[in-house]
Amino acid sequence: MTTQIESTQRASELRDLINKYNYLYYVIDNPEVTDSEYDRLFNELKQIEHKQPELLTADSPTQRVGGRALDKFNQITHAIPMLSLDNVFNTEDLNAFDQRVRDWLNTREVQVYAAEPKLDGLAISLRYEQGILVQAATRGDGAVGEDVTVNVRTIPTVPLKLIGDDIPDVVEVRGEIIMPKAGFDALNIKQVEEGKKPFVNPRNAAAGSLRQLDSKITANRPLAIYCYGLGELIGMDKPATHSAAMKMIEKWGCQISPELELLEGVDACLRYIEQLGERRDSLSYDIDGVVLKIDNIQLQQRLGFVSRAPRWAIAHKFPAQEEMTVVEDIEIQVGRTGALTPVARLKPVFVGGVTVSNATLHNQDEIDRKDVRVGDTVIVRRAGDVIPEVVQVVMSKRPEQTVNFKIPSICPICDSEVERVEGEAIARCSGGLYCPAQRKEAIKHFASRKAMDVDGLGDKLVEQLVDEGLINDPADLFQLTVEQLSSLERMGEKSAVNLVNALDASKHTRFSRFLFALGIREAGEATTRSLASHFLTLGALNVANEDALIEIEDVGPIVAHHIVTFFHQEHNQQVIDRLLAAGVDWPEEKKIAEDSLLSGKTVVLTGTLEQLSRSEAKEKLLALGAKVAGSVSAKTDYVVAGRDAGSKLTKAEKLGITVMSESDMLAWFN
Ligand code: D41
Predict the structure, then answer these.
(1) Residue 204 is part of which domain span?
(2) What are 86-124's pLDDT values in tens digits?
(3) Three-state SS string across 363-432, please?
(4) Looking at the structure, do residues 310 and 455 belong to the same domain, yes or no?
(5) Does residue 82 belong to any structural domain of this protein?
(6) Does 329 lie in the same domain as 305?
(7) For a substitution probing ligand 1, which of 176, 288, 305 has the most ligand atoms within 8 Å of its CB?
(8) Among 2, 160, 180, 595, which is least packed by CB within 10 angstroms?
(9) pTM of the full predicted structure?
(10) Which of 397, 412, 429 is the C-terminal boundary of a domain?
(11) CATH number of the domain that 229 lies in?
């Protein structure tokens, strides 16, 4: 039980904290907490005030919508306030929202919702008079924003004049200004090159770009807008639905979300949320959730709004991709090619949907740039399947007596000297296969799924085998006996037999997989596939020189050099000979005819396939001579769109690329 005094105290504490964070975030643009931490504090305060309304004060941050306007820009009072959105984080709360809507409307009927991604940018209101953009204002606190008209005019996707002949006297189009991920990455590379501080995330970069007093700077920033609503409207009737309003502004030349969909009922909304969540990382911009709006405007008006948010809309937020935690240690990992990678050991934190306890620090330059030290509190980011990353140190939380971290000059595993080639960021152990860490990694790679695909030979087991001195290189794997294996700790007779059988089965592979498994530096899947289909035999590849190699697709001068060096090394030849002697083999490669159906064509698969798996489809396409790419560009020849295909399909249509169905693709295969 919390006492009255405790709640009073906590509420006051929360108000002070939130006000401070507001100031840091909005005014001096230097956040000290993650958005999700802020949201948590904000929600906690709202809860307390909801349970005990007598604790609500006039200066509570819950009583205004966002931050406050900077005074360097003129202030603008919105003709119609820009509302904010309430959040939910789970199914239960979304169902409760839907139930509330139906209770208020006094109906049991299923509601029609307009669903769209919640972009992580800055809300903006564009005012058009007689179709001409006359004013652009940030949302500010919802009532009063900043006049950023000159800056917004520089954004290419913002129409300066609406097109068509059904333009009202006055209309305010509302939307979100964002910086697409690609533009953000390019901008940050430029920032670092120019010795400037990189931006923490696309949202901060968009905010910083819009707040420039010099609009020439804004003009050079890759900003875009997606529109999601209307404000004031004079000289025209309001459309009957949100979706009709969106179609109308799209005709006027405003960009709306290509993901906008009408959904019947909350279950369809939940499916949309799940599917968009899966595609989150493949979208070209950051999103932090889904916005659902009752489509019918009459119903919207009946529902109205409470204090700051409409009752007819809700944001379902995805798990935060950034959280704060503490660096407990920094360790060095030695990779397959000897690269020394510093890794931060973190106090475990739930971020991006999983618990994270390690984050890569990449290299010494990155550590220096971010000045990450043991004991620091840091913001950690995890987006999708990418390796968790330390975004930024929270300097105000740095304890006393921390020290700079330096990558050692001696390999922590084998004591060999560490080398760093002039102009390269990566430090490498010079021990080669003398270094147990490099041996372990080489063997793990050899056995991995995309290489020889040895079932049941996991990383831990490889480490155990090397540590016990049972294997030193990949060829040793095939000499392992059931007796040797079953003598290992935690290994029973049955697992030992299974592993020997799996090793046997893995011997029958494909030429490209074998080449990939060898772990030649820089020779990835695409390169080894090209090598296999070009040279057809190991003998031919063995004698190829660099000139012959760079003629081939996916092979540049650097990898060509690594390939030649690899085959020139005596011990590599010995390992290869022993592998072949152990019975490693593959079916003869057939030259893909130049006139093969898809020879030289680039194909992109998107959406869910029904008849065969993605990897099966990919294999078959490759066999027909196609290249299979992950994203749609002008170079794409065909897009195969399965069920629920999304932005890639839209992009293909925009670029005029031939779109095929799964059954069209199956016809190719036959
Ligand atoms: O993508 C967004 N961030 C987004 C924000 C969106 N797709 N729709 C939104 N709809 C609204 C209402 C329902 C109030 C018209 C919003 C926002 N508001 C919003 N953005 C910032 C505060 C509120």
Answers:
(1) 87-317
(2) 999 999 999 999 999 999 999 999 999 999 999 999 999
(3) CHHHHHHHCCCCCCEEEEECCCCCCCEEEEECHHHCCCCCCCCCCCCECCCCCCEEEECCCCCCEEECCH
(4) no
(5) no
(6) no
(7) 176
(8) 595
(9) 0.65
(10) 397
(11) 3.30.470.30
